[in-house]
Amino acid sequence: MYGNSVPAETVGGDLFEYINFQQRYDLDARIQRALTLSKEFLERLPPGSPPRNSADDHVQWLKLRPDYRPELETEYRDARSSEQVRIAEDLHELYTTAGVLLVDAEGHGIISAKIASTVHDTFHALMLAELDHHGKYTGAI
After folding, report:
1. Based on CB atoms within 10 Å of each CB, which residue in 37, 104, 132, 141 is the most buried?
2. Within the chain, where are the H helices?
3. Cα separation of 95 and 103, whole Å?
């Protein structure tokens, strides 16, 4: 694949970015984080300890409810743990994935360049959230 950009002026509103998922989003670190969370979600919180993660926080809330039963904690922790395993598996698929971000902001002045830059930054921020929560791009961006 080859790409080249030859600007006609000093400022523009067009943006093209080739996205290598493995390089751009550090898939190794994301997979490791998901697997670590998978194990951590299964560990019960010692009495009196502050929550370590979102599973601990939710379990503390569950325990305040009048319909709480101990098996609810186990079921919830198992579900959250398996969710992280699935995220890690889905992230593995992105090792062979690439994408393209193409922005064509109307006009080619400084405002158009700022719009393209904002779209670029927003796209990548939302993509990070998608990968951490789903392990893949879900189409919600």
Report:
1. 37
2. 21-24, 27-42, 54-64, 70-92, 110-134
3. 24
